[in-house]
Amino acid sequence: MNWSLDRSLQRRMAVTLLALGVLTLAFGAGLSVLVAWGVQWLSGVFGLALGTSTLYALGALTTLVGGGVVLHRALQQDAAETFDADEVAPDEYPRLHAAVARLAQAADLPLPSVHVADRDRPFAMTTGLSTDDAKLVVSTGLLDALDDEELDAVVAHELAHVKNRDATVMTLVELPLSSARNLGRMLQHSGGVHFALLGVAAGSYLFWGLGRALVASLSRSRELAADRGASALLGDPAPLASALDTLAEDLQSTPETDARATPLAALSVVPAPRENSGPALTWERRRPVLWGLRLPVRRARHRVNDRYVRPVLATHPATDERIDRLRALERTQEGVRVPKTDR
């Protein structure tokens, strides 16, 4: 097997981690200031006189403790538990286990634990903080949809993530982002005891948006790198191209309806299908004010999303683009294999 770590991906992961670390520190500092303002307001209500240094110390301490609690909860999220996947033995899914064992040995990797979720929607992902505790999670829908060669290709793709260690990085970078989004949602529905809470919620969403753009860019790069790694591991890009084509078709008919799966979208082998349906625009069978503007507004929103938002926040390259790259790689390899004739 002619396969080594993707150095370009390693550099991108390092840059993303550094940028997200700086962004996290800035968010934490801003959060500490807002909490300090909140403490100052509360101290005024109760007639307490606190010094500036004390206020900021309390703000920093509250931010650290709260961040630790939220991070601890985020660490408890596990792909296998999220999808109600059970660890399976080789005698239960011999085809899957045989592919994992063969390809893990070829990639010089420890055997990951294998989990299967009883879901019609086809998906596969790998999580874990190291190569030793990697978990491969697949659905019964994926196992039913793919033939043996396509299944090998998907397993090779997931093991490429483990080999490149990007599954570890993605697991780590998702923690502060999911924590910030959960914090924003919690404060958004808290009733707004103080204006500082609104500032914290807004800051959480801003941090999440900027961080999501960074992580999405890395995620797209890691998917292409894993495609190349799987092709090198198999020696042929064609099975993976075929698997992606099959999965893309099946996903259109079985969209994900579990909101718990949203934070794990970046870890799946293929992205979930986009949903373009907008919110309901009727109320008690009456036409709301400016009802005639609904279609232009919806079209404008879709244009902005399609042209500017989705390309930036997409966790995967377009499946057609990935297939085209794999076909081009296949043609290149076939050209290399053609023997030269003597002139």
Automatic annotation (TrEMBL):
Any one GO molecular function term: metal ion binding
Cofactor binding description: Binds 1 zinc ion per subunit.
UniProt cross-references to InterPro entries, sorted A to Z: HtpX_protease, Peptidase_M48
Domain annotation Peptidase M48: ranges: 93-329
KW Zinc (keyword) present: yes
GO BP annotations, alphabetical order: proteolysis
Entry's family note: Belongs to the peptidase M48 family.
Name of protein: M48 family metalloprotease
